[in-house]
Backbone:
C-alpha cells in the first residue's frame, strides 16, 4: 500500500533475482561428494527454503553482506567458471548483498541462514511479518543495511550478542536490558505512529523504585497482604517485553529488596506486612 493512495500496488512476491541467485549458489557450492540433492521448497505461509550440502566457506553471512566482495575460495571452481561464462552468475560475491537490499526495499525480513549439520539452508520470506518494523524502515530510509541486519534480529526476537547490543545502544536504536530489548524512542518517533509510541511507553514502563513504592503503599493501606494481591497490582504494569515468568521474578526481587532493607517482612507463607523498622 502506498501512503498517498487508497489503491494497492500489485507486485511479485519474490523478485526474480531473489530466487535465481540462491538457486545458483546452491548449485555452485554443493558438496557433490555427498551424493545428495539440492532442495528448493516453497511453503504455504509465504517463504522459500533453499538448501544444499557443504559447509559455508565465508566466515559468516554478515561478513559477506558487509564486505560485498567476491569469495576467494570456491568448492567447485570449474563449475563456477562455467556458470559465469554462461551469464548464470552476474556479479561474483555481490549477489547475497543484493538480495538483502531487495528485501529491505520491500520492508521484508532479512534472509535467515542455518549453517548446521554440514548444510547451508537459506530461508527467504516473501511478506511483511511485522508491520511496525516495516513502518520503521519506511520512515527511516537512512538506516544502513548493517543496522537493518541487527534490527531484524530485534524484530524476530533473536538473541543478540554483547557486541550487537552495544552497537544498537551506541546508535540509539534500542533500549532495555539484554533479555528485554525494545526499539528506542529515536527510531519510533519519525514514524509518527501512535500505536508504536504507545507500545514503546508500555515497554519502557516505570523504574524499579516506582514499583517498590507502590508495593509499600499497598501494604500500608491493606495491612497483611497476599503475594497474589501484590502480583495483581504490579504485574499488569510491568513492561510488555517481559515474559510471565520474568514478571513474577521481578515482583519477587522487589519484595526481597524491601525485606532486606527492613521495610516489609514475611509473616507467613505468601503474606507480607510492614516491618516498621525502616521507612522506604
Residues:
Amino acid at each position: 500500500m502506498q501512503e498517498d493512495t487508497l489503491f494497492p500496488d500489485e507486485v511479485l512476491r519474490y523478485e526474480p533475482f531473489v530466487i535465481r541467485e540462491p538457486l545458483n549458489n546452491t548449485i555452485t557450492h554443493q558438496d557433490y561428494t555427498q551424493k545428495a540433492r539440492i532442495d528448493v521448497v516453497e511453503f504455504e505461509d509465504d517463504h522459500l527454503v533453499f538448501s544444499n550440502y557443504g559447509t559455508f566457506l565465508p566466515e559468516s553471512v554478515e561478513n559477506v553482506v558487509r564486505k560485498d566482495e567476491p569469495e576467494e575460495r570456491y568448492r567447485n571452481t570449474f563449475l563456477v567458471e562455467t556458470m559465469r561464462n554462461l551469464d548464470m552468475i552476474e556479479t561474483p560475491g555481490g549477489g547475497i548483498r543484493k538480495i538483502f537490499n531487495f528485501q529491505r526495499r520491500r520492508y521484508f525480513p532479512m534472509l535467515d541462514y542455518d549453517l548446521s549439520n554440514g548444510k547451508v539452508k537459506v530461508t527467504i520470506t516473501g511478506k511483511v511479518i511485522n508491520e511496525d518494523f516495516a513502518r520503521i524502515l519506511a520512515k527511516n530510509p537512512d538506516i544502513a543495511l548493517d543496522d537493518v541486519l541487527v534490527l531484524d534480529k530485534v524484530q524476530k526476537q533473536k538473541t543478540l550478542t554483547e557486541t550487537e547490543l552495544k552497537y544498537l545502544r551506541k546508535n540509539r536504536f534500542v533500549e532495555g536490558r539484554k533479555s528485554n530489548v525494545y526499539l528506542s524512542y529515536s527510531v519510533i518517533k519519525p514514524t509518527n505512529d501512535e500505536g508504536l509510541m504507545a507500545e514503546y511507553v508500555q515497554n519502557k514502563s516505570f523504574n524499579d523504585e516506582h514499583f517498590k513504592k507502590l508495593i509499600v503503599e499497598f501494604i500500608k493501606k491493606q495491612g497483611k497482604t497476599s503475594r497474589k494481591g501484590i502480583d495483581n497490582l504490579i504485574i499488569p504494569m510491568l513492561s510488555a517485553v517481559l515474559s510471565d515468568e520474568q514478571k513474577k521474578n521481578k515482583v519477587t526481587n522487589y519484595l526481597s529488596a524491601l525485606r532486606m532493607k527492613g521495610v516489609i517482612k514475611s509473616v507467613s507463607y505468601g503474606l507480607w506486612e510492614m516491618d516498621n523498622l525502616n521507612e522506604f
